[in-house]
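Lab manual, section 2.4: Encoding a predicted structure.

Procedure: take the sequence of the chain (196 residues), apply the prediction step described in section 2.3, and record the output as structure tokens. A sample record is shown.
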Amino acid sequence: RCCPRASARIYCRSRKGHCSLFPIFSRTAAAPKDGEWQSSGNWLLRTGQYGSMLLGFSAILLVWIGAIYFSYSEWVQTERTARQTAENLARVLEEQVVRTIRGADQTLLYLRDSYAKDPQHFDISLWTHDTQFLTGAVVQVAVIDQDGKLVADNISGAQLGLDLSDRYHFRIHAKRQSDELYISKPVLGRVSHRWT
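Recorded output:
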């Protein structure tokens, strides 16, 4: 029978004096039978048990997703910070190397000009000890003539006239016409006995 307070599309089935409403799609639809009424109630109970499990699994899944996202965010931030730090250190190192090379180049230019003014009375050992041009990065300052013979050296006890014409850093300047700084591969010094 139809519930008097419901619209024409709602079917009312009374159970123990209560009116339960079920939506239907036509006026000719049949009311649920007693077995169907019981099975729909059991389905709601089963959904309740599985619903709480589903809710629990969903909560655990959300916690794991949050933890993974947080870990990934931390990893990205750490990588970004490490990259920025490495770039800053590389920039500082580059500036230091450029400054050291420029300082060495200026020292060599000043040394060359001083030697060219008076080669007979030029004392490189006094010059290098009394000036602030040589820093801890400079091991040796030497003058080699056009034949590759050692003419002057800041290291005491250096053998003047030592033939250095086979050294690549001499040969490159002997072949070049341009006045440019050349940085060679590391070599073991014959006078200093150090890698320079």
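Check your result against the sample. The first strand starts at residue 10 and ends at 15.
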